[in-house]
Amino acid sequence: MKLTKEQIKQVENYLTKKGIKYIDIRFEVLDHISTDLEYLIEHNNYSFGDAFKEVTIKWNKSFKKTSSLLLGYSSNGPKMLIKKCIKIYKPLFVKSLILVFLFIAIGYSVNYYFEYSLINYKNVIHQFIYLALILYCGIILFWYIKIRLGKANTTFSYLFRKRIIPNLFSVFIFMPYLNDSYITRENKLSVIMFAMLFVFFLTFLGARYFFKNHLKAVSNYKKYQLK
Hints:
- The protein is mainly α.
- Helices cover 74% and strands 5% of the residues.
- The protein is elongated and about 80 Å long.
């Protein structure tokens, strides 16, 4: 049997009370809970009230508040949300870490094995870096504002807010130390400084990934509503 609109509304109210406001998780859980309720009512001859009590006892464990060292202890929420965030973020974090180490290794190899001088390109490099960082901040803020104006929450918007926005403050901390610090005394690239810029680039790619998947989740939600 299918649940009535009133019964589905009761399940939705339950999810709201448990803090499940992220639509990509919400409708996934709503479908699972509805299936559990329908099974108990149809096969075990439960009333909706009894079935609802049993099912909520089962699901309450998934809605307990928790946090993660990987995401930072300020990133806390229902266990189900944090678990999905880790599933999305962990592969990106590991890949980024590997790429940064590779970047540093290649940078030091280039500086060690090749003779070159950037003394004539200091101003050009300096201007390019500042322009790139300004564009970085502008695009990140544009995406964040667009997410907020959409007034829909997803796991990806949560990750954008928790993992990307704090990096904007890192840019403002980083910029005053630029000057000539990106070039060594030997007039070669400073590997550490450019590794930090590379981290910003990877963060930008992560932001783009979260933003695009947030829009996709919202689009799927709207299609679901039209059915």
